[in-house]
Write a structure and sequence with these properties.
The structure is a single chain. By secondary structure, this protein is mainly α. The chain has one domain. Helices cover 58% and strands 0% of the residues. The protein has five helices and no strands. The longest helix has 15 residues. The protein is globular and about 30 Å long.
């Protein structure tokens, strides 16, 4: 099971099969940003949430719940 934290990178989230759907739910703009494509390995969930005023706590809850649901 994957355990997403504030230090998880965008690349790590997108490697998880349900990660993109959760990010889309929170309207994370990095998915279509050309600059983010170059920084995916360094861009953390904490950085993204701080930059776009996204609720980090709820995003992590949803990512971790999605992970649990995919491993059942």
């Amino acid at each position: 099971m994957v355990d997403f934290t504030e230090k998880t990178t965008l690349k790590e989230v997108l490697e998880f099969s349900g990660g993109e759907e959760v990010l889309l739910k929170y309207k994370v703009p990095c998915l279509s940003c050309p600059m983010a494509q170059m920084e995916m390995s360094d861009l953390t969930l904490k950085d993204i949430c701080a930059a776009y005023r996204i609720d980090l706590k709820n995003l992590l809850i949803d990512l971790n719940l999605a992970t649990q649901n995919n491993y059942k």
